[in-house]
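Much of our argument rests on the idea that a fold can be written as discrete symbols. Part of our work consisted of pairing the sequence of a single chain with a tokenised description of its backbone. We regard such an encoding as a compact summary of how the chain folds. The amino acid sequence and the backbone structure tokens for this protein are reproduced below.
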Amino acid sequence: MNPPPPRDAFAALVLHRRPQRARVGLSLGFVRTFAVPEIAEVLSGTGKLAATPKARAKATGAMMFALIGHGVESPAGREIVAELAAMHRIPGVDEELMRYVLACFTVCPVEFAAGTPAEREAAAAFATDLAAALRLPPPPGPTLAETAAWMREFETARFAPSEAGRALWHAVAPLFAARLPGPLARHAPAFAAALLDAPLRDAFTLPRPPLPLRAAARLAFHLTH
């Protein structure tokens, strides 16, 4: 069997090889944006995410997975790009914020799903295509590792506690239950918090979960395919 074309390897990872892990990673990427006060204010401004977190998070995931699956230049992809471009026109959403959101939605699924070098290369190519379609500057560096490094620098400069960010986190944390084995679903907020790194916990003013819970959370979410 011939290997998939380079850009298709990213779609194969998130849609077929490890879709559940990729969805957890995408959810964590979404959550990362809440730690940037400017983004949190925009997301909370409509009230839709806090009021209907399951529907909004599901819609965001469906949009990104459809874009990854169909491609940026497909008819479906162009419709989604138009929706994303409309977000760019919201007051307060500048180019750097949009680049950060796109980086989160590309880097986080691949990292959580432990993508191969080929899949990471494909994800970087997808991010470049999407940035071009949105008329944004290309992601920093040609590799996903360089984009991830830029993300960390951005987060060091821009992460900060905010009421909007904390409210959004508490609204979406229960949604991680869908990614947990049945008996653990009722503990979804605690398990989800255990997946957060120190900068995110600081932004949401969450205590550091004990080591056994952090280890159990990683195991529980990585048991999914």
